[in-house]
Design goal:
Elements: H1 3-30, H2 54-65, E1 68-73, E2 76-82, H3 84-93, E3 100-101, H4 105-111, H5 121-139, H6 145-160, E4 165-166, H7 169-183, H8 191-199, H9 211-222, H10 232-256, H11 266-276, H12 287-318, H13 320-333, H14 349-362, E5 371-372, E6 377-379, E7 382-384, E8 389-393, H15 394-398, H16 441-458, E9 459-463, E10 476-477, E11 481-482, E12 488-492
Parallel strand pairs: 2-8
Antiparallel strand pairs: 1-2, 3-5, 4-12, 5-8, 6-7, 9-12, 10-11
Helix pairs in contact: 6-7, 6-16, 7-12, 10-12, 12-14, 12-16
Protein name: Cytochrome P450 family 2 subfamily C member 76
Main location: endoplasmic reticulum
Cofactor: heme
Length: 493
């Protein structure tokens, strides 16, 4: 018998075992977990779900299986929560039980369970609590975060005055600079001198990959054996290695000039905490955790806000009448001779509604990042075992037809009452909800309001084509919603 035949027999036996395990796992789960489509061996329901538009597939499955159902991404079950009632019951009413981060192998290879976004347990609680405390402290300093956002907005306006047409890059760089001011004491990119060399250095994170790559990551998360094969995950890992080197250089600079009585930025605060806990062997404040926490803050803070701004400007190009009404409100409340500030927002209900509607409409992270249950729990008539992945379908909340009539239409009226006053909604969850709500929510809200009003205070947005011909359909609805590429002109008012 030849060696090749022996290898073939071994492969057949291994494959058979995997199939048997998959079938057993599926039948075992059905006794406890919510119902769902029948999974295939090994791949689960992957062939039944369009990874380019998972959100749409989930909505279709919810019609058949109800607001709580189970799908299999590979061998692992994922319980899906669809609609406001189910999402609220999980994330808000039972926040603690649904507070773990679910398995996400492509990122776990980078974060190793550290940082804020993909950590769990004590490490997550301590790091998140500390990070929020630092952000609050920095908001109350001599130069507050609001001051820094206003500065960055004025730099952006100055730059846009010098050009008739601009790519989205400047908005990305503007938000990127704001992250730098918080993490690294304002050592930002010099717009005038470094645009060319920095254009290539916008960080590559999950949100920046193409629709094709997004599909690969979904497969990677379901079948981690793909780690050993060529693919775009290698680009992500290589890019992270370079970013880690850069972050370590910055930390070293801070260590050499640290004044424990006068912290300048997030890195300083963390280093001081590390020094205080250096004799505590169980401390979560380590060099490794600092690196990943900075990476989390920079990646999440840059990509989400810049993509929202990019998509928001496209929607205002498509709807010039809405942009004009915002400009009318800016003229009435702020005028032309001072910069917008956060105190203005309460007197600008229409602008506030537009910012909210941009976030609701674009549905930036349709299925949220995966959650997991912290213990065996009874949920309605189902039993969900500890550690089970949970997928929160934020799209079904942000596009609820009863709360937001004609949800597929871009309409600031979704956030205005009959008198034109701003109307809050419990269904507004672009930052998620509960224990895992985005740690940078307040910062992102400030950035979106101040940068958008600064741009519209100084410029009229002019498309290069007829607004009727502008297509606002995203190029991907996989891991994140990615807007189409476009150009526009900024005409000084």
């Amino acid at each position: 018998q030849s060696p090749s035949m022996d290898l073939f027999i071994v492969l057949v036996i291994c494959l058979s075992c995997l199939i048997l395990f998959s079938l057993w796992n599926a039948s075992y789960g059905k006794g406890k977990l919510p119902p769902g489509p029948t999974p295939l061996p090994i791949v689960g329901n992957m062939l039944q779900i369009n990874t380019k538009n998972i959100s749409k597939c989930i909505s279709m499955l919810a019609k058949d299986y109800g607001p709580v159902f189970t799908v299999y991404f590979g061998l692992k079950p994922t319980v899906v929560f669809h609609g406001f009632k189910a999402v609220k019951e999980a994330l808000i009413d039972r926040a603690e039980e649904f507070s773990d981060r679910g398995s996400f192998p492509v990122v776990e290879n980078i974060t190793q369970g550290l940082g804020i976004v993909f950590s769990n347990g004590k490490k997550w609680k301590h790091t998140r609590r500390f990070s929020l405390m630092v952000l609050r402290n920095m908001g109350m300093g001599k130069k507050t975060i609001e001051d820094r956002i206003q500065e960055e907005a004025s730099y952006l306006v100055e730059l846009l005055r010098k050009t008739n047409g601009v790519y989205f890059f400047f908005t990305v760089r503007s938000v990127s600079n704001l992250c730098c001011t918080i993490i690294d004491n304002g050592k930002c990119v010099n717009y005038k001198n470094k645009i060319k060399q920095n254009k290539k250095r916008v960080p590559i994170t999950l949100a920046t990959f193409s629709a094709k790559d997004s599909v690969f990551f979904q497969l990677y998360n379901a079948l981690p054996l793909l780690h050993y094969l060529p693919g775009c995950h290698k680009d992500l890992f290589n890019n992270f290695a370079h970013q880690k080197e850069f972050i370590l250089e910055k930390i070293k600079e801070h260590q050499e000039s640290l004044d424990i009585n006068n912290p300048r930025d997030f890195i300083d605060y963390f280093l001081i905490k590390m020094e205080k806990e250096k004799h505590n062997e169980e401390s979560e404040f380590t060099m490794e955790n600092l690196v990943i926490t900075i990476w989390d803050m920079f990646s999440a803070g840059t990509e989400t806000t810049s993509t929202t701004m990019r998509y928001g400007l496209l929607l205002l190009l498509k709807h010039p009448e809405i942009a004009a009404k915002v400009q009318e409100e800016i003229d009435r409340v702020i005028g032309r001779h001072r910069s917008p500030c956060m105190q203005d927002r309460s007197r600008m209900p229409y602008t506030d509604a537009v910012v909210h509607e941009i976030q609701r409409y674009i549905d930036l992270v349709p299925t949220n990042l995966p959650h997991a249950v912290t213990q065996d729990i009874q949920f309605r008539e189902f039993l969900i075992p500890k550690g089970t992945n949970v997928l929160i379908h934020l799209s079904s909340v942000l596009h609820d037809e009863k709360e937001f009539p004609n949800p597929e239409r871009f309409d600031p009226g979704h956030f205005l009452d009959e008198s034109g006053n701003f109307k809050k909604s419990d269904y507004f969850m672009p930052f998620s909800a509960g224990k895992r709500i985005c740690a940078g929510e307040s910062l992102a809200r400030m950035e979106l309001f101040l940068i958008l009003t600064s741009i519209l205070q100084n410029f009229t947005l002019k498309p290069l084509v007829d607004p009727k011909d502008i297509d606002v359909t995203p190029i991907s609805n996989g891991l994140g919603t990615i807007p189409p590429f476009y150009e526009l002109c900024f005409i000084p008012v």
